[in-house]
Amino acid sequence: MTEQMSLFKGEMMEEQLRNYFLNLGYYVVRGVKFRYENFDITDIDLYLYNRSASISRQRINVDIKNKKTPQAFERILWANGLMKLLNFDSCIVATTDRRESVHSFGQKHNTIVLNGNFLKKLQNIKSVIKLIDERIPEETLLNELSKFRDNNQIGNKTWRDIYENCKSQLLTQLDFSGINALLPIINYFAESILTDVKKREIASRMLYLTSSQFLIMIDFIIKDIAFLEQKDREKKLSDGFKYGNLGKDGINKIVNIAIQISGNKSTSSSVLKLLDNLQIRIFKEFFANTENGKNLFNWGKQFESIGYAKHFVNPMELEPPLKAIIAILLDYFEIDRKEFFGIFK
User: Fold this and answer.
1) Element (H, E) at 305
2) What does pTM read for this prediction?
């Protein structure tokens, strides 16, 4: 990675708060664009995700304003409205404003307020300072990603644009549509590791970060099938990976409409045969396993941490569970495990 960039005070505050919430055990993503039909509507400073129980998850949007005139009342209304729009569980406003009226207004409108007194103390919390020293800030990563483009393999986008879009999916696509959109991206970065030695480190970081998001998406899905029998969980996952959010019945309806339009009955069998040929068996067996399901959240956090670590960790150096997940993804993409890990020996 290139030399770390200097941060403005607002950027530094976002990094400090990100690290604060990481220390509290949250999965944290910074600078997430809320998009609708290719329009950037607004940015969420921090997105927090937590596995609060086996059948429940917590999602929180955090708004951060480190300014002399932070307009705290307006930010509380904005954060609260965005929380409801995204169907999140809570929202937080971090503001330099110290007025008690701001705190009480936040309480009245279901918004947690971290005021100027808290933000001042934040700068001296040892665990936060430690992570600042150990992690690459968002600006440094995005600057590095801006240097590369996919050359029409997945839309002729810069790697930064690809990553920004992946982050946005966490807001509204914690489902099979999000997973099926993310998998080709993970595949692209895995292939980049193999084919371009100059991009190998940054591509590895992107493999870790997109794999992290993949695990969080599955973790969110798993909560709704946690108490099903093993075979039923496997079927739910298998159908999701094959047919997406529509399910098998939904795909059949679309196929039948296509038959009526085209008059070609072979369309149905060819489409369903293609879906059945997908390499999903190892996915459904691994992620339907109860013990693996319990660890998805923690594995997602570990991949995120390694993706942003100042000291680069190559795939051969990963802990066994994380290495196993990369191996499973490689199998899905039909990439040879030995060849992939062998380049780092």
Assistant:
1) helix 290-308
2) 0.90
